[in-house]
Specification:
Number of strands: 9
Number of helices: 3
Order of helices and strands: EEHEEEEEHEHE
Strand content: 25-35%
Distance between the termini: 35 Å
Radius of gyration: 20 Å
């Protein structure tokens, strides 16, 4: 099965559909994104915009959810920015915090503790942002 994400005018994913492989084959029997796009535009209108994606993240970096953005420069689906201070790493195509997450100690692991990001703490003092949390 093939998967396609519909994009709005801002390249935001509005839905993701599954299409039979037979519906995306070209004249030579090879899978073709453009054939899949044409198939979907015939169903939902020629003004719709579609990008093929992969459930396993093999196409365009990751499987998108509604609200993800398709970044045409990176040719990747990007999840929502988790916090205003985080920046997009264009190599890994993931959001990165402005401060590297501290390591979890063995004691933290045995007590089921970990680090969570606190944007308010970072905005008040940009040398901090990670706080200890229980039960993660």
């Amino acid at each position: 099965m093939a998967h396609f994400a519909e994009l709005d005018e801002n390249n935001i994913v509005t839905r993701v559909l599954v299409v039979n492989n037979e519906d995306i084959l070209d004249g030579e029997g090879q899978e073709s994104e453009s054939v899949g796009v044409s198939f979907l535009q015939n169903l939902f209108g020629s003004e719709t915009t579609w990008k093929q994606c992969s459930y396993h993240g093999n196409i365009r970096c990751r499987y998108p959810s509604i609200g993800f953005e398709y970044n045409s420069t990176l040719d990747a689906f990007i999840n929502l920015q988790p916090f205003p201070s985080w920046t997009l790493n264009t190599t890994t195509k993931t959001w990165q915090p402005p401060i590297v997450e501290p390591d979890r100690t063995d004691d933290m692991i045995s007590n089921n503790q970990g680090w969570i990001w606190n944007e308010n703490a970072y905005q008040a003092d940009n040398t901090t942002g990670w706080i200890l949390s229980a039960n993660i």
